Amino acid sequence: MPFRPVQVLIADDSTVFLSTLMSGMEQDSAFGEIRTADSVSQLVALSHTFHPDVMVVGACLLSKSETSFMKSSGVPVVVLLRAGENAAEIQGGNAADYVRLPSSQSLKSWQVFCSEVCVKVKIAAVAMPARTHVFPAKAKSPAGEHEKVIVIGASTGGTDATADIIKRLPPHLPGILIVQHMPSGFTKMYAQRLNSLTDIHVSEAQDGDRVERGTALIAPGGLHLLLKKDSKGYYVTCVRGERVNGHCPSVGVLFDSAAKTAGPAALGVLLTGMGRDGAQGLLHMKQEGAYTIGQDESTCVVYGMPREAFEIGAVVQQAPLQQIADLIILHIK
Q1: Do the first three CATH levels of 6-131 and 149-331 match, i.e. the same topology?
Q2: Of 73, 155, 250, 257, which one is the catalytic site residue?
Q3: Predicted structure pTM score
Q4: CA within 20 to 30 Å of 268's CA: 68, 140, 148, 152, which one?
Q5: Closest among 31, 302, 6 to 23, alpha carbons compared
Q6: Does the domain at residues 6-131 carry the CATH identifier 3.40.50.2300?
Q7: Does 47 qualify as catalytic in the annotation?
Q8: pLDDT, tens digit, for every residue of 74-126?
């Protein structure tokens, strides 16, 4: 990974929760030293002596009197919300994002929660200029009339899964379009993170962007991403719209547009995520002759979207995450 390990300060008034989250984060090599605080006074003191890159703080410690601390610290904060706590009340300052504590006490729920916290801390860390490795622009080549296209959709756990695939792909492949369920304001940072991991040029999509070999476009948070085609080849549109399958951007919207626009020239990949977004769209792609891949249960953080696609017959090949890049290379030629 081209970033030095992220230093994290976790603060909450539950010592049991602090221990659980710290243990989960220690399993991820992206993180360096992790320290904890169980009071506002400890949080403030450690923020000055430990100098964390990102703080994970329970909303219970962020009373109105502490909002000035968030603004003055200069450190991005991922806020933890319990049932009944309102995200709107903690927005502002350096709040980068928030994660709700699981309502269930099951092991799987806590594993999903820890994974989501880790992903959002990594995204928050990307925003730090000293941490970002700047790469020169990669070479691009235009898409031809019969060019193929790769479309990838993911939700919970998908930021790491997509990164694992992208860094394994060579830069000469046809253009890639990605929908990751992510709020507005964070997809650009996520694109920067992916760009630093690969020789493929990754960026947040803008309306009218051409789909070119050696490039990948990430759907902007809050906008649907659609594949279009004209006499010069493929391009994308980014449009506002109602949530589809509960999401905007929606994987299903992208996949449906790929089925309509590219037909058998498309390759679809549906990765880990809760719910069913993308399953019907992947089926439509398969019905139009596209090759379709679904992540298997053993490597999913949440086997929801890929399960739905598999059960309705939308998946040509189900595979563990580690094999998906090879399948893309094999079938996109």
Answers
A1: yes
A2: 155
A3: 0.65
A4: 140
A5: 31
A6: yes
A7: no
A8: 788 888 888 777 655 555 455 677 888 887 778 888 888 888 888 778 777 76
